[in-house]
């Protein structure tokens, strides 16, 4: 799945995507944590059929259910300033490659990817380094190429 990311000045970050069935949707991340999920008309990709508005807690619950990488709204500015760099937050799943392993042992440290921070139990550990041990429930913030961040999401989600 390919995401088209667009910074919407004064609004947030829009991540538009199409499913394998050709259905178009987008997730708009607002600075306050709100997320809008927009579903588009199948014959007119610019016409919204409806919008689901989620507060920050609801968005986190949906993200956990979907077990997907969630782009962080406050990192959107960094992404905008560095064209070609994708910044994402990825939950570490139970029994994934990362659960209970040092970052260097996940197989991700040699990729075009930087470990920016780990959020554990609501506490942020900035630039934790290659020896940092990840645990299920951690959220890992990484920056890198789109391919590298997608691989990181797959590995840490246990796919």
UniProtKB/TrEMBL annotation:
Pfam families: KhtT_N (PF25991). It comes from the Bacteria. One of its GO terms (biological process) is potassium ion transport. Transmembrane segments: none annotated. Gene3D superfamilies: Regulator of K+ conductance, C-terminal domain (3.30.70.1450). GO terms for molecular function: monoatomic cation transmembrane transporter activity. This is TrkA domain protein. It comes from Micromonospora rifamycinica.
């Amino acid at each position: 799945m390919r995401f088209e990311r667009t910074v919407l000045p004064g609004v947030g970050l829009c991540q538009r995507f199409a499913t394998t069935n050709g259905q178009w949707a987008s997730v708009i991340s607002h600075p306050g944590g709100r997320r809008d999920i927009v579903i588009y008309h199948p014959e007119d990709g610019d016409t919204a059929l409806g919008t689901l508005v989620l507060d920050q807690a609801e968005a986190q619950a949906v993200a956990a259910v979907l077990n997907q990488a969630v782009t962080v709204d406050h990192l959107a500015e960094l992404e905008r300033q560095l064209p070609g760099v994708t910044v994402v937050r990825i939950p570490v799943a139970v029994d994934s490659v990362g659960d209970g392993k040092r970052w260097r042992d996940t197989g991700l440290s040699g990729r075009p990817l930087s470990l920016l921070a780990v959020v554990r139990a609501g506490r942020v550990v900035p630039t934790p380094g290659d020896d940092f041990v990840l645990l299920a429930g951690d959220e890992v913030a990484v920056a890198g190429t789109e391919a590298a961040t997608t691989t990181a999401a797959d590995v840490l989600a246990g796919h």
